Amino acid sequence: ANIFEKKQEARDRFFRVVEIGEFETDPAVWGKNFPDQYDAWKNTTTDYGNTMFGGSGKRDKLAENPRLKELYAGYPFSIEYNDERGHGWSLVDVKEIKRLGQNKPGTCMSCKSSDNVRLWKEMGPSAFYNTNMYKLDVKHPISCLNCHDPSTMDLRVANPAFIEAMEKRGVDLKKATRQEMRSYVCAQCHVEYYFESKKNPILHFPWKHGYTLDDMERYYDEEGFYDWVHPESGAKLIKMQHPDFELWSTGIHARSGVSCADCHMPFKRVGSQKISDHWVRSPLVNVAAACQTCHRWSEDELKSRVMAIQVRTRKLMDRSEEAIISAIRAIKTASDAGAGDAALEKARSLHRKAQMRWDYVQSENSMGFHSPQEAARLLGEAIDYARQAEVEAIKASAVGGKTARTAKRP
Amino acid sequence: ANIFEKKQEARDRFFRVVEIGEFETDPAVWGKNFPDQYDAWKNTTTDYGNTMFGGSGKRDKLAENPRLKELYAGYPFSIEYNDERGHGWSLVDVKEIKRLGQNKPGTCMSCKSSDNVRLWKEMGPSAFYNTNMYKLDVKHPISCLNCHDPSTMDLRVANPAFIEAMEKRGVDLKKATRQEMRSYVCAQCHVEYYFESKKNPILHFPWKHGYTLDDMERYYDEEGFYDWVHPESGAKLIKMQHPDFELWSTGIHARSGVSCADCHMPFKRVGSQKISDHWVRSPLVNVAAACQTCHRWSEDELKSRVMAIQVRTRKLMDRSEEAIISAIRAIKTASDAGAGDAALEKARSLHRKAQMRWDYVQSENSMGFHSPQEAARLLGEAIDYARQAEVEAIKASAVGGKTARTAKRP
Amino acid sequence: MTVTAMQKLAAALAGLLVGTGGFTFLYARGFSYLSDKPETCVNCHVMREQLDAWYASSHSSAAVCNDCHTPHPKVAKYLVKATNGIKHSTYFTLGNFHEPIRISSSNRRIVEQNCRRCHEHLVGAIHGSPDELSCLSCHVRAGHQR
Ligand SMILES: [Ca+2]
Ligand SMILES: [Ca+2]
User: Measured between alpha carbons, how far is residue B247 from residues A407, B161, B241, B393 in Å?
Assistant: First the structure.
């Protein structure tokens, strides 16, 4: 089509069919003004199939990788743990998941619904976190209000934990550039988090010293923080959660100013309009728009570049898991052999360091793509700490009297 | 130069002042026809300083990293080992190096002089390899004849070992593209190699199964090949040598068709001509020409991107070295404690696997830059095998009667 | 508005005032800066790469050099052409410019404005000013296929 004919349509743009209220949580209402974005958003409940390591399937991670049950033993993630799917599923999935059963705190809703933006205002965050999740008055999954200011349609962050964390880092969100906002809206949720305490489950992000694993470990160690004690090894462990933003921030794309939205919500052309694709999903099913504007390689070539990176990562994950399981079993053997807490302290703290690094990559969602070399570095460290834990445990059990030849390999 | 001269130069191309003979080994003669390339080539003896991990300094690797003496114990590389410098130094350095003293076979000259191209013809490779290196009639360091066909000036490979290896891989060098030749000429030398035997030091490249470490390991294991037995651990080890071509071939640049010459011999403008910069050196002292034709980032930004990759690699190298040394000492302790060969066999073969992987990255010259994630993967594996060796040794020594608590950490 | 020969001449004369630069400006048919034919840019061989890359780009059929590299409306256009012309001529004569050649931030801004000028109908509503979201951060190869 000739570019000048289009001048016509150019005049009529988004009509304001309805006024969108300050706390309008229903995407259908927003959709009256922005039907294209709304239709795309609705697709986030469409099952577009699985990629090698991602995709929209509700894959059962515990069934796909039996090692996870032993690694997460004693923690809810050993009960049920699935690969995530589109934003439209968030409400259903958080309600149905068996983890924590009916005792989920309101905190679990923080990243699952547009209604929480309203509730944080009405109830205040603290009351929200301390209400049973199933008692919260929520109707809608993640949608418009989580990312937009209805009056201007500008991007906006609403999650109090993110705002607090950035303040503590001395980042002035008012000064954030538009390109930064195209990642910050995602960083409200796709990040490592922790609860202030089981009794008072206020939501926080461990970013005091920075975004790298080493920074977060330093913070957790200073606080003497841990999520649970591993029943077999007795180590005080931390469950890492989807640090997508943190890993991305160490990578070459972040360094090059490439935002989450660039790849997961690329612009697309709808008739004579250019809009952001609100069907947030794996870029591997949308390579043309997601990658080819910047990379001139073919779709197949780009996909296999991603796969090459992901397979390397997966191989190191396998090694890490085997190493950590060997450590767990060696520590168990040692304590059975009579080694005491003092003798096992070193082995246990090494297990903590190893599992933290492995879980950081495991719970991150790109199988290393967001920062390939950093993911590999962390897995290398995980292996080192895990095997050192095994060594320490074997020495301890030797003291404990028996040799550890009985320790089995996974 | 002003614009008149430019239009002038544009007309005259290279004059053939002299005819260059089929086996002209003297770069000065070639230089009569191609003064710009010759002048730049002469610069390869210029000391342009050191970068963080590279540069032109004849850095004493053994002094900079004391661990190397223990890792290479019992092998010539523990006697003298320096960082390489420009091509113009090759002849001096190979003659002066203490490794193998006066008993160097001719094979050592294979990659050090333009005269070997003539000698392979005159003597035949086998006689060349079996002549004492100091008795070979060589005058010139690496120069024109190593990479060029004097009649056409096309790129040409002359090293019989490379030609043989590529034939075995089923690669038809006659069909090689110009871009491939821009890496193949380097791959005559910047590769892992081995001697058929100490008695008959014919030069070969271990590429039967491919270029990756795993491929080469498979080949060496099939052949039961090893360079020396480590005096402390008793493991049969292989010394890896500058696998620059092999590591590069696993990286994103190779995959994107970027050749060695693109970065190490970038085109530069001389008057109105673009010629290849024959001052082959670290691209970090030549970022504008070497990188900015493809990358729009500033010189400082590009340098710090490289540094970020190299520092990550170096950190994993430190861990690998500590892990391997722990393994060596644990095996030593075990055999001192009376553990026999049978009991230590497993630990020793694990030491072999670990050291092979670490040395591959160590002896490669870009500190991981040529393929960041692959280098990290190999170091992660090196750590895994080394710590497993330590575990096996400790178990063996427990059998041997004593515990291994005495095994010291480096 | 249309451009008078006067304005073109004025711009060219502006070039003449600057010593060697001005001289080269004429010699190298610096008037090419006042023409819209892409080939004329290549009176300087150093522009050859960009010409070839432009031919290969999606825009060779849509836009010529000056559509992107000179601002509109036209008065400003001829001033920028003259100043760029003199700047480049000087560099060219002295030969001491950064290679690979890189667009200056001011000229990058002009390009950005031209992207928006032509694509207003499509991106006007969603893409704000260049400092907000740069077209080139994504469409780096629009004008020159690399
Ligand atoms: Ca998914
Ligand atoms: Ca060097």
Answer: 37, 19, 12, 31
CA distances from B384 to A287, A381, B311 (A): 36, 10, 20
Q: How far is CA A259 from the centre of its chain?
A: 16
Burial of residue A2 (number of CB atoms within 10 Å: 0-12, 13-18, 19+) = exposed
Q: Could you give the C-alpha distances from B254 to A312, B180, B260, B292, in angstroms and in order?
A: 17, 10, 9, 17
Cα distances (angstroms) measured from residue B226 to each of B75, B102, B353, B356, C73: 12, 23, 12, 11, 75
> For residue B106, how far is its CA from the centre of ligand 2 (angstroms)?
24
Instruction: Compute chain C's Rg from CA coordinates.
Output: 16
Over residues A189-195, mean pLDDT = 98
Residue C121 and residue A257: Cβ atoms within 8 Å?
A: no
**Which residues, 6 or more positions from A345, have their beta carbon under 8 angstroms from its beta carbon?**
none
What distance in Å separates residue A93's CA from the closest CA in chain B? 35
How far apart, in Å, do the first and last CA atoms of chain C sit?
36
Encode pLDDT of B183-229 as tens digits.
999 999 999 999 999 999 999 999 999 999 999 999 999 999 999 99
A275-279, B110-114, B244-248, C13-17, range with the lowest pLDDT: C13-17
Please report the pLDDT score of residue B3 as a whole number.
30
Q: 């008055």: which residue's tokens?
A: A137
Rounded (5°) CA angle A394-A398-A401: 140
Residues 42-61 of B with CB under 8 A from A: none
Answer whether C133 sits within 8 Å of A179, measured CB to CB: yes
The reply to whether residue A316 touches residue B377, judged by beta carbons under 8 angstroms, is: yes
Radius of gyration for chain A, computed over Cα atoms and rounded to the nearest angstrom: 23
Give the predicted TM-score (pTM) of the model.
0.94
pLDDT, residue C83, reads 79
Instruction: Determine whether the interchain pair C140/A294 forms a contact, defined as Cβ–Cβ distance below 8 Å.
Output: yes
Query: Does the beta carbon of B394 lie under 8 angstroms from any beta carbon of chain A?
Result: yes
pLDDT in tens, B263-307: 999 999 887 788 999 999 999 999 999 999 999 999 999 999 999
Question: Do residues B336 and B342 touch, judged by C-beta distance below 8 A?
Answer: no
Q: Which chains have 3 or more CB–CB distances shorter than 8 Å to chain C?
A: A, B
Inter-chain touch B2–C93, beta carbons under 8 Å: yes
| CA A283 / ligand 1 centre spacing (Å) | 11
pLDDT in tens, A161-180: 999 999 999 999 999 999 99
- Kindly identify the ligand whose nearest atom is closest to the C-alpha of A48: 1
